[in-house]
Design a protein that fits this description.
It is built from nine helices and ten strands. By secondary structure, the protein is an alpha/beta fold. A ten-stranded mixed β-sheet has the order 3-2-1-4-5-10-9-6-7-8, with helices on both faces. Helix 3 runs parallel beside helix 4.
């Protein structure tokens, strides 16, 4: 049985994360370790009050949010106690990842620094939820046949052995050179291949097709997020454009 660390943040949609976890639990019998990290720092852009006054005000609101979150978890049938830690977000997550099989985190608008820091340090698979609740049935693998996507697919096959049908969706790639297709077939997974190419398709068409699926598997981002962003690499665009949960192994 897989155990998932679900990270809750003050500015995120707790109900969205809980509903996605419940869907995973129903379909794959996942367990949960719910975590909330209180960071000892003033959010960027808060300048009209002194740091100490700002922190006092934030603490009051945050404590109220945590109590509401505990009530929401119980209301939604999650009996595991919410763990509340104080410290540096990424450091605490690294420690708690030792206890679980994967991490669930919500994408933040504009991929803020805290969200990107988490993606940089995770050493277990991560599920990014963003906008919608998934049934986790209709799976698409975004493939460029590189090392990163092969690593993700191997983790995905291990963590979701119940899934035996996937679609392989590629952008600017040749069918005959796709070794990932060979791997999936060898693992007993039925694969439908859909090829998109910039000569005949737009990226909007590609992302529209991607968002027809319930669950997206993609490779890790191999370069710095800043470089990925300014060069408009596909990895960052997938995270920004996706409306369904993303798996990164």
């Amino acid at each position: 049985m897989e155990k998932m660390l679900v990270l809750f943040k003050y500015y995120n949609d707790a109900k969205l994360a809980i509903e996605n976890f419940k869907s995973l639990k129903k379909r794959f019998n996942f367990e949960i370790l719910p975590l909330y990290v209180k960071e000892l720092r003033v959010p960027t852009g808060v300048t009209f009050l002194s740091p100490s006054m700002t922190m006092d005000i934030l603490k009051e609101y945050e404590d109220e949010y945590i109590e509401d979150l505990k009530s929401l978890l119980l209301k939604e049938g999650v009996e595991e106690e919410l763990v509340v830690e104080i410290g540096i977000n990424k450091d605490i997550i690294q420690e708690y990842l030792k206890k679980v099989d994967c991490l669930m985190v919500e994408e933040t608008e504009y991929l803020d620094e805290d969200f990107l820091d988490i993606l940089k340090i995770v050493y277990k698979p991560v599920i990014i939820v963003n906008k919608n609740v998934s049934t986790f049935k209709n799976v698409v693998i975004i493939s460029d046949d590189g090392v990163k996507i092969n690593k993700s697919v191997n983790s995905f096959i291990r963590d979701f052995p119940q899934i035996k049908n996937v679609t392989l969706l590629s952008w600017n790639y040749k069918y005959q050179e796709n070794h990932l297709l060979e791997l999936l077939k060898r693992k007993g997974i039925e694969v439908k291949v859909e090829m998109f190419n910039q000569q005949f398709n737009t990226k909007d068409e590609f992302f529209q097709k991607m968002n027809e699926f319930d669950f997206i598997v993609m490779g890790n981002l191999s370069k710095s997020f800043f470089f990925e962003k300014i060069t408009k690499r596909m990895g960052v665009e997938i995270i920004e454009k996706a409306i369904k949960p993303i798996f990164i192994g």
